[in-house]
Amino acid sequence: MDVVAAAGASRKVGHMSERRSVEQLFGVDRLLDDDERAIAATVADFGAKRLRPHIAQWFEDGALPVRELAVELGELGLFGMHLDGYGCAGTSATAYGMACLEAEAVDSGLRSFVSVQGSLSMFALHRWGSEEQKQQWLPAMAKGQALGCFGLTEPDYGSNPAGMRTHARRDGGDWILNGAKMWITNAPVADVAIVWAQTGEHGVGRGVRGFVVPTDTPGFSAPEITHKMSLRASVTGEIVLDDVRLPASAQLPRAEGLRGPLSCLNEARFGIVFGAVGAARDCLETAIDYAGTREVFDKPLSGYQLTQAKIADMAVELGNAYLLAIQLGRIKDAGGIAPEQISLGKLNNVREAIAIARQCRTILGANGITLEYPVIRHANNLESVLTYEGTSEMHQLMIAKALTGQDAFR
């Protein structure tokens, strides 16, 4: 653009000042250490070069090159990165959170892939498994050479896992599992499933045990769930267990009762606290860029007060979500985070992220419903994030129970 044209453009847009990001506005970088910034930058760079050019097509096709990506993500060290030993990176919880943020800035399905592998399947083995189970599975899973899934939710039991119908019974020295699980990420492509079942040993809920189930075990099947309108760049399936016979060594020896699976869910929820921020940030950055170039009545859309009010309000909520996520990361790194604190982050950050996605869609107008822009894809994905790993209502009850001392779940 020549000088005359540049001057004309300057007059057209009115008073311009240097743009700042939400991170700059809230001073987010100052709250992160060098390793955390480096990990976030590495994942963002991988996302920009390897994932973003394809993600809209993967979403439209309802397919993801899982095996190929698993090895690449394993090489980056993302799987189980916050765990120690067995080929895991042993990073801080906050660093893991920032990796989730950058992964979900590309797509929630990609962050789910990382979460299910590391925070559900690998964490279950790492926290509750035997040394033999850990040695058998964790190094290969950390490299992305073996994939895991986590079977807790059932067709009729989501928020109330204590009511699960999947059961395990003794037959000599073996266990025999029967039942079904639903909405299980990675199930159709997994090499190993962590399956939770009632044993009846101590009554409903208290007798829940975890089992390490190789997916080539006779009687195990995992049909894929299709026709999804959300998380399309993610592989979702059922788990069907038809007289699946397992040796006694398949049981997770240290997990008894719902404490086992719920501890894993808290790990996954922690990643969502950060991940939702990434999805919201991508929507807001897209909307700001679009509003700056879209002219309405001979003036950029971003120059109108109503648009600026929307952008300012969304920036405040996004920045607050950032700060909450980092604060919870610091608490977790200090070793004292409580389940209700994770609920606080998951409830707030996902709720605000989906509100930001919807508002950004209005700024993009009709263009906001196409896959040319990421906003409608994020909005659709966040509809799932809003309800999985605990619905908003369940997290509200967790928070209120901590504040009132009253249990209102029943």
Automatic annotation (TrEMBL):
<dbReference type="Pfam" id="PF00441">
    <property type="entry name" value="Acyl-CoA_dh_1"/>
</dbReference>
<feature type="domain" description="Acyl-CoA dehydrogenase/oxidase C-terminal">
    <location>
        <begin position="256"/>
        <end position="403"/>
    </location>
</feature>
<keyword id="KW-0560">Oxidoreductase</keyword>
<dbReference type="GO" id="GO:0033539">
    <property type="term" value="P:fatty acid beta-oxidation using acyl-CoA dehydrogenase"/>
</dbReference>
<dbReference type="InterPro" id="IPR046373">
    <property type="entry name" value="Acyl-CoA_Oxase/DH_mid-dom_sf"/>
</dbReference>
<dbReference type="Pfam" id="PF02771">
    <property type="entry name" value="Acyl-CoA_dh_N"/>
</dbReference>
<dbReference type="GO" id="GO:0046949">
    <property type="term" value="P:fatty-acyl-CoA biosynthetic process"/>
</dbReference>
<dbReference type="InterPro" id="IPR009100">
    <property type="entry name" value="AcylCoA_DH/oxidase_NM_dom_sf"/>
</dbReference>
<dbReference type="GO" id="GO:0050660">
    <property type="term" value="F:flavin adenine dinucleotide binding"/>
</dbReference>
<dbReference type="Pfam" id="PF02770">
    <property type="entry name" value="Acyl-CoA_dh_M"/>
</dbReference>
<dbReference type="InterPro" id="IPR009075">
    <property type="entry name" value="AcylCo_DH/oxidase_C"/>
</dbReference>
<dbReference type="InterPro" id="IPR052033">
    <property type="entry name" value="Glutaryl-CoA_DH_mitochondrial"/>
</dbReference>
<dbReference type="InterPro" id="IPR013786">
    <property type="entry name" value="AcylCoA_DH/ox_N"/>
</dbReference>
<dbReference type="InterPro" id="IPR006091">
    <property type="entry name" value="Acyl-CoA_Oxase/DH_mid-dom"/>
</dbReference>
<feature type="domain" description="Acyl-CoA oxidase/dehydrogenase middle">
    <location>
        <begin position="149"/>
        <end position="244"/>
    </location>
</feature>
<protein>
    <submittedName>
        <fullName>Glutaryl-CoA dehydrogenase</fullName>
    </submittedName>
</protein>
<keyword id="KW-0285">Flavoprotein</keyword>
<feature type="domain" description="Acyl-CoA dehydrogenase/oxidase N-terminal">
    <location>
        <begin position="34"/>
        <end position="145"/>
    </location>
</feature>
<dbReference type="InterPro" id="IPR036250">
    <property type="entry name" value="AcylCo_DH-like_C"/>
</dbReference>
<dbReference type="GO" id="GO:0004361">
    <property type="term" value="F:glutaryl-CoA dehydrogenase activity"/>
</dbReference>
<keyword id="KW-0809">Transit peptide</keyword>
<keyword id="KW-0274">FAD</keyword>
<comment type="similarity">
    <text>Belongs to the acyl-CoA dehydrogenase family.</text>
</comment>
<dbReference type="GO" id="GO:0000062">
    <property type="term" value="F:fatty-acyl-CoA binding"/>
</dbReference>
<dbReference type="InterPro" id="IPR037069">
    <property type="entry name" value="AcylCoA_DH/ox_N_sf"/>
</dbReference>
